[in-house]
Amino acid sequence: MRRKTSQRTAIELVLQEVNRPMGVEEILNHSRKIVTSLNQATVYRNLKLLVESGWLRQIHHPVLGTLYERTGKGHHHHFHCRVCGRVFDLPGCALNEDKAAPEGFVVEDHEIYLVGVCPSCPG
Questions:
Q1: Which domain holds residue 14?
Q2: CA distances from 98 to 42, 78, 103 (A)
């Protein structure tokens, strides 16, 4: 990876502190509290570097598009609050892949999104 910059440090800090999947705009808004001159192009460039280095991974949400989360959390799924729009990690996996797919199908990966209202929002 290239040299460490204050912009990348701010992005890493935000992703560590928030500790849930985030989109580019949310990362930009939080990171600007640390580095006010940060712009969207710089965020995209640094997210690309962090994904390439293995520090981050992309997840593809069916409504929100590409989100970013730290690696090393093990297999898990996500909860999308329809009120505040935030996405949260759900621990573990209750899906039995052997029984989920019809006979003859080979499951290589899966992602489950639950949708509802988080405890911080009035439901």
A1: 6-70
A2: 43, 21, 9
Rounded to 5 degrees, φ, ψ at 25 are: -60, -40
Report CA-CA distances (Å) from 76 to 24, 26, 85, 101, 112.
21, 21, 19, 19, 9
Please answer whether residues 104 and 121 qualify as being in contact, where contact means their C-beta atoms are separated by less than 8 angstroms. no
Structure-token match 């995209």, residue found: 44
Q: Cβ distance 66 to 60 under 8 Å?
A: yes
pLDDT in tens, 23-71: 999 999 999 999 999 999 999 999 999 999 999 999 999 999 999 999 9
CA–CA dist 57, 4 (Å, integer): 19
List helix spans (H) across the chain: 6-18, 24-31, 40-52, 97-100
- Residue 123, in any domain of the structure: no
Asked whether residue 59 is domain-assigned, the answer is yes
CATH of the domain at 48: 1.10.10.10
